[in-house]
Design goal:
The complex is a heterodimer of chains A (249) and B (308).
Chain A (H helix, E strand, L loop, with lengths): L1 E5 L2 E3 L21 E3 L1 H15 L5 E8 L4 H10 L3 E6 L6 H14 L4 E5 L10 H8 L4 E11 L2 E8 L2 E8 L2 E5 L11 H7 L4 E5 L11 E7 L8 E2 L3 H10 L5
Parallel strand pairs in A: 1-4, 1-6, 4-5, 5-11, 6-10, 7-10
Antiparallel strand pairs in A: 2-3, 7-8, 8-9
Chain B lengths: L1 E5 L2 E2 L2 E2 L1 H11 L5 E7 L3 H8 L4 E8 L8 H11 L3 E7 L2 H13 L4 E5 L1 E4 L2 E6 L4 E7 L4 E5 L14 E4 L10 E7 L12 E5 L13 H7 L2 E4 L1 H5 L20 E5 L5 H7 L4 E6 L12 E4 L2 H11 L1
Parallel strand pairs in B: 1-4, 1-6, 4-5, 5-12, 6-11, 7-11, 14-15, 14-16, 16-17, 17-18
Antiparallel strand pairs in B: 2-3, 8-9, 9-10
Helix pairs in contact in B: 3-4
The chains are: A alpha/beta (249), B alpha/beta (308).
The complex binds flavin-adenine dinucleotide (FAD) and adenosine monophosphate.
């Protein structure tokens, strides 16, 4: 069995995004970039499945500029076997990403695709579900547990009311939640080894997907800032403020 | 053209998020239909029909929709989609699960978690954990939208609109429901509570969350948690507030032993009033708190309970 893991290069989760002065977008110049945390979890899960002897190959794929090769190398250092870079300078929408991923999936028919549930830049939470629709596969989203059996996978999902478990027939699509696993760190020898692992580049234009934008980014603004609060001395003052000033209790 | 809202419900109880999603939809200025799909949900449909602004409820009441699985929910919505220019669902875990699937089947994008309707094509949505607000304009002829309910008000009620039965019974295909571990709580839902008391890693263990009980009883509050508290196993996952947990905006949010990481703030910084109790005066939570108390939570919580 093959596992395909789509990964995204995003702003490092510790960095607070700043809006550009001209309000055209967020300023990413000289900002620390990293592998999307949910994608890191997806890579880890795929590697664990392989280590458990239930998969032969883990392929990572990323769509974007040349810079995404850095994150592909990171995933290779973590233990993925090979990487595919779908190269484009265009700013793509989720539907286009899902369509490109579906084309890759046609070329690399992996029984299991594991994506992050959400990219922490766009906060879209939709690409995996879209890929499931386009590839006509069942989906197990927001997974906190993935158990493979013969031809099926049981996925425990984090839902608003608690946890839900669903069974999917393979081939299937899974998206990861934070508690699925704790990703490992890449060791130095593995980082060195990753440099020699195969990384194929496919131009996005060659995949026959319409990349014309359908959503216009009109403006990006700072959120409303909260007025500075005060430090109270004790519980009595806190309660007095909540009762008489804020009037919330 | 009309607007279609897909109702969210659990065990037949219509979620308040649906009313708030209708509140967002009213701003589109079109007739609103609500789809209620589930099993034994005639009362859910009646509740939806009584929300102001609803023209008609489409009721699909059959066993194959009992768990609102993404695959057959998506097929159902697609089959109903022709008359609608806008299709909206709440950004609950149910809505987030099936809506992008609907979008892709219709060859449309989804606009996720809108917090404002600017006009019928233009919407505002938070990106980068709420550190930026994007205004996006859809150039497509059909809009697929999920709504961040915390940004909208509850609708009033009305005399019930018409309910029409639709006897589609898509066989449940795709994922097969196995089991559900339902969190049991007597308290209000996090996303509906007027007051939330929330604990972080500073609580040290699950047992100490009992210190919240008396306070929550007195305030009619729900109890929430940071990811660190959930990861450490103090409390279950459905209590997590944040970028990747629940997004809340109560009248009063009391953060106890929570440092205030970007991802936590993303889930609660639109609360009307924020109180922070933390022993570290430099904790970032104080930057968003209206009232901060620099102290040991184990001293403060019993005092607070007694004083309320
Ligand atoms: C992709 C991603 C998504 C995430 N999503 C979320 C999310 O949705 N929600 C979320 O919450 N986090 C999320 N996180 C995690 C987030 O980055 C922080 O790690 C987390 O919020 C920290 O939780 P905390 O404040 O409870 O713990 P800490 O940061 O460890 O803070 C504990 C605080 O308790 C205080 N304290 C300790 N003892 C006492 C005492 N006796 N009295 C008073 N104060 C005390 C300390 O001073 C400290 O400020 C996410 C992270 C990533 C990478
Ligand atoms: N440019 C991309 N290249 C590869 N995978 C992506 C890309 N964008 C999104 N994904 C995948 O889709 C997941 C969800 O992203 P999103 O739907 O944008 O929140 C991510 O965690 C990745 O697994």
């Amino acid at each position: 069995m093959k596992i395909l893991v789509p990964i995204k290069r995003v702003i490092d989760y510790n960095v607070k995004a700043r809006v550009k002065a001209d309000q055209t977008d967020v300023d990413l110049a000289n900002v620390k970039m990293a592998l999307n945390p949910f994608c890191e979890i997806a890579v880890e899960e795929a590697i664990r499945i392989k280590e458990a002897g239930k998969a032969e190959e883990v392929i990572v794929v990323s769509i974007g500029t040349k810079a995404v090769q850095e994150q592909l190398r990171t995933a290779l250092a973590l233990g993925a076997d090979r990487a595919i870079h779908v190269e484009t300078d265009a700013k793509l929408e989720s539907l286009q990403i899902a369509k490109l991923l579906n084309k890759v999936l046609e070329q690399e028919p992996a029984e299991l695709v594991i994506l992050g549930k959400q990219a922490i830049d766009s906060d879209n939470n939709q690409t995996g579900q879209m890929l499931a629709a386009l590839s006509n596969r069942p989906q197990g989203t927001f997974a906190s547990k993935v158990e493979l059996a013969d031809g099926t996978v049981n996925v425990t999902r984090e839902v608003d009311g608690g946890l839900q478990t669903v069974a999917l027939n393979l081939p299937a699509i899974v998206t990861t939640d934070l508690r699925l696993n704790e990703p490992r760190y890449a060791s130095l020898p593995n980082i060195m080894k990753a440099k020699r692992k195969p990384l194929a580049v496919i131009p996005a234009d060659s995949l026959d997907v319409d990349l014309t934008p359908r959503i216009e980014l009109v403006k990006v603004e700072e959120p409303a800032t909260r007025e500075a609060g005060i430090i109270v001395d004790d519980v009595a003052q806190l309660i007095e403020k909540l009762k008489n000033e804020a009037k919330v209790i | 053209m009309k607007t279609l809202i897909i109702a969210d419900h659990e065990y037949g109880v219509l979620k308040p998020e649906t009313s708030k999603t209708i509140n967002a939809a009213v701003k589109l200025g079109q007739d609103i239909d609500v789809l209620v799909a589930g099993f034994n949900v005639s009362e859910t449909a009646a509740a939806a029909a009584s929300i102001a602004g609803v023209n008609q409820v489409v009721l699909v009441d059959t066993a194959s929709f009992e768990h609102q699985q993404a695959e057959n929910m998506a097929d159902l919505v697609v089959s109903l989609s022709a008359d609608y220019s806008h299709i909206l669902a709440s950004a609950t875990t149910t809505g987030k699960n099936f809506m992008p699937r609907v979008a892709a089947l219709l060859d449309k994008n989804q606009i996720s978690e809108i917090i404002a309707v600017v006009d019928a094509d233009t919407f505002k949505r938070p990106i980068y954990a709420g550190n930026a607000i994007a205004t996006v304009k859809s150039l497509e002829d059909k809009k697929l939208i999920t709504v961040r309910a915390s940004a909208f008000d509850l609708q009033d009620t009305q005399t019930a609109a018409n309910i029409v039965n639709n006897d589609t019974s898509n066989a449940a295909t795709g994922s097969v429901f196995v089991s559900k571990e339902q969190a049991e709580s007597e308290r209000p839902e996090l996303t509906a509570a007027p007051v939330i008391v929330s604990g972080g890693r500073g609580m040290q263990n699950g047992e100490n969350f009992k210190l919240f009980e008396g306070i929550a009883d007195k305030l009619g509050a729900a109890i929430g948690a940071s990811r660190a508290a959930v990861d450490a196993g103090f409390v279950p996952n459905d209590m997590q507030v944040g970028q990747t947990g629940k997004i809340v905006a109560p009248n009063l949010y009391i953060a106890v032993g929570i440092s205030g990481a970007i991802q936590h703030l993303a889930g609660m910084k639109d609360s009307k009033v924020i109180v922070a109790i933390n022993k570290d005066p430099d904790a970032p939570i104080f930057q968003v708190a209206d009232y901060g108390l620099v102290a040991d939570l184990f001293d403060i919580l019993p005092e607070l309970e007694a004083a309320l």
